[in-house]
Amino acid sequence: MNRLAAALTRRAIPPCRRALCSGAPQDGEMEAAVRDIVCSGAGSLDEVGSRLDRLGVAVSPALVGSVIDSCGGGSGRRLLRFLAWCSSKDPGAMGVETLDRAIGVLARAGDLTAMRIAISDAEKDGRRMAPGTFTAVIEALVKAGREDEAVRLFRGLERQRLLPQRSDSVGGHGVWSSTLAMVQALCKRGHAREAQGVVWHHKSELSAEPMVSIVERSLLHGWCIHGNAKEARRVLDEMKSSGVPLGLPSFNDFLHCVCHRNLKFNPSALVPEAMDILTEMRSYGVAPAASSFNILLSCLGRARRVKEAFRILYLMKEGKARCSPDWVSYYLVVRVLYLTQRIVRGKRLVDAMLESGVLPTSKFFHGLIGVLCGTEQLDHALDMFKLMKRCGLADTRIYDMLIEKFCRSGRFEVGRELWNDATKNGLMLGCSEDLLDPLKTEVFRPACPAHKLSPQSYKRLAQKKKTVAVGAKKDTARAAARKK
């Protein structure tokens, strides 16, 4: 009877209280109980303080820091209530940087509501945010589509003279300023117009090197992300005329912008304009890399301009482009060949890549096998998988994809062979073994066999549909005339 009563008592006491009732709690148990209440506890916000009071925990900087680091998204308001409770119990135990640390955690977790409350409290106390915290806050607002709010916060802190102080230390992170962080955060998401307004209002601060170079490169990147090739060209010309050093990333940004604009509005101008930019790069002393040509190849593939993509890759292979292709270059061309049903030509290109010594990665085979499975070329996908195994790159993910695809297509024997092969190699598959059972797996088959119509058959079918439509209209007119 005593054992039963003891067991019922243990069940009735919450985990955070059980450690306290069993004797003097250890520091680790106490800290875990506090984290459980603040970070993952249930109940209203008003219950946080009362539960902490019942726990009888002593406030210390180490405990506060541990709880702040443990809190993630969804527990921001509870964290603020915990900090208010700590401040009421022992204001001296709250370090100067505690609120700043909490703001940074809330910003990285994306809890904007709790972050705004914490920033408002910091402004009332006249506290400055640390440079890293300010950067995290601005980036969180811009990422959430609140770029106007980010600019308002920046200007409000500037009016109150609470912006983080400029640091000229060059170690590790280089030169930093709040204005520069604001411009970079906006340009990273393509809000170059707002960034340009910030730059205009802080000309004196950003007029010295290396600030000028960083700002110009950021604006170029921002206009390219925004997709405004005209403004990007203007910034690029200003950088060249003012002597700002330009590197491969800046030219690649501009090439990406121009290629995607042409992909949308004028695919025929993809190759000519891209070649002009590559020539401009060489004249400026920047050698194009494989990444530069891959931008062009990607857009050509999306536009299904197979011949031009194959020609660019041929120029790279022969050395006429002064740049050798990497596995991404081959992947982009082979992918568009597979998508346009040029399977044999794509296989030859893969063999040529391996013979030339270019080593692919698992992403290369994952992408191509996925394309072949998506276009129902399962036998060719199996051949590509065998080549992947010979390269020693087969993994669990590709086995799962192929087993499910073959079983869903009704080829259970191939799925069983792949399952046995994976088990033999000691791989832990993520798909269920029920896929191999025809009684449990639904097979997807096309409702009618796909067949191509010749031009003559297509014309006859169109004429037949037109005749039927005209006849239906005449019948409707006759029926309406009879009713009258």
Question: What does this molecule look like?
Answer:
There is one protein chain. The chain has 484 residues and is mostly helical. It has a domain at 15-127. The chain is 69% helix and 0% strand. It is built from 25 helices and no strands. The protein starts with a helix and ends with a helix. 31% of the residues are buried. The model is unreliable at 1-25 and 168-173 (pLDDT under 50).
Our Rg estimate from Cα atoms comes to 32 Å
Termini gap: 95 Å
Biggest sheet overview: none
Low-confidence stretches: 1-25, 168-173
Instruction: Assess the beta-strand content as a share of residues.
Output: under 5%
Number of strands: 0
What's the shape?
extended
Mean pLDDT reading: 84
Helix content: 55-70%
Helical region count? 25
The sequence of SSEs as H and E is HHHHHHHHHHHHHHHHHHHHHHHHH
Structural class: mainly alpha
Provide a concise account of the structure shown.
With 484 residues, the chain is mainly α.
